[in-house]
Inverse folding.
């Protein structure tokens, strides 16, 4: 079976999470991904614990199925090797701050001279232009500037740090995959390469499109999908585990009310006091009691699973986390493992 990106070659200069995860998905879809690292400053994730058989589990997860080229691209000789590869490559992806690739002599103008159809995808925190373009940052900063942290608060009103890197992945990795495939499609139609600007802070803002529309129009957010509805909430059970109730539509909510023998709750949905009453009910029994009673009744109730539980759930089977392609990939390569093949 042909993969959608089979036959395309990607030169990947990225490190850490956003870029490597994006190029992993490209490898899963059949692209030949060449991970380019300087021997003087390889991807630091290579050395992040935990380690398995001497290899970082993070590095192996993010870089499976790729080839490794170790070369000092800051040197004239190394730069020339990269430019030679660019002549036949389809996409170059980088994650440096603006101006760094130009300092290397590997900016879009330099790449385009060797290959007019080349696509350069640049991932940054704040975009290629503007007063903040050169500012350093990480996921937590991108979330704070975009208003995302303000939207996620604990019971005391304090912003919380998500366990998932929302800006890195949704604003960086996913948008890089989208940008790359869109640019390839554009090139197929027009023959033109291009330089694509992927700003993680700008991109992550789309996750709250509905909240933004509401607050900019009315000045407030009702928070109905953030814990202010009894029908759309997380509840603690007697064993300390939790269930997620998403009975948002009236038909689901009323059916839930009927099944827990509180049909009168159906007409009280907008009462904030109702949340405490529903919480009191769930606190009387362990999680498995409630999932056994309600999970398969079509009321949108689910258990809050651990990572281990999710990985063994029938929904995922052997595909956890979900992959963007078919077939298995080789383990992540050692530094410079493909130098002889590529040079």
């Amino acid at each position: 079976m042909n993969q959608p990106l089979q036959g395309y070659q990607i030169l990947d200069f990225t490190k850490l999470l956003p870029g490597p995860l994006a190029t992993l998905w490209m490898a899963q879809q059949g692209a030949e991904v060449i991970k380019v690292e300087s021997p003087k400053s390889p991807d630091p994730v290579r050395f992040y614990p935990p380690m398995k058989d001497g290899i970082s589990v993070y590095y192996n997860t993010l870089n499976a199925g790729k080839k490794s080229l170790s070369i000092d691209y800051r040197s004239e000789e190394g730069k020339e090797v990269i430019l030679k590869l660019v002549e036949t490559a389809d996409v170059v992806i980088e994650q440096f701050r603006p101006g760094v690739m130009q300092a290397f002599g590997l900016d879009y103008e330099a790449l385009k001279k060797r290959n007019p159809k080349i696509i350069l995808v640049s991932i940054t925190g704040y975009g290629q232009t503007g007063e903040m373009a050169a500012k350093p940052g990480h996921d937590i900063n991108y979330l704070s500037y975009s208003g995302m942290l303000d939207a996620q608060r604990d019971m005391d009103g304090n912003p919380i740090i998500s366990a998932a890197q929302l800006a890195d992945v949704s604003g960086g990795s996913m948008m890089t995959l989208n940008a790359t495939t869109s640019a390839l499609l554009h090139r197929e139609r027009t023959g033109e390469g291009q330089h694509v600007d992927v700003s993680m802070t700008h991109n992550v803002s789309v996750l709250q499109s509905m909240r933004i529309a509401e607050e900019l129009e009315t000045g407030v957010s009702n928070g109905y999908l953030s814990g202010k509805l009894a029908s759309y909430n997380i509840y603690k059970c007697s064993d300390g585990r939790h269930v997620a109730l998403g009975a948002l539509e009236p038909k689901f909510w009323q059916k839930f009310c009927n099944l827990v023998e509180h049909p009168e709750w159906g007409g009280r949905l907008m009462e904030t006091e109702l949340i405490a009453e529903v919480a009191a009910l769930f606190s009387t029994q362990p999680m498995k009691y409630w999932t056994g009673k309600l999970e398969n009744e079509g009321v949108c109730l689910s258990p809050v699973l651990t990572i281990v539980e999710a990985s063994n759930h029938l929904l995922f089977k052997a595909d956890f986390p979900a992959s963007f392609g078919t077939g298995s990939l080789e383990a992540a390569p050692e530094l410079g493992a493909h130098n002889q093949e590529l040079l």
Summary: The chain has a mean pLDDT of 95. The first strand starts at residue 9 and ends at 12. The two ends are 30 Å apart (CA to CA).
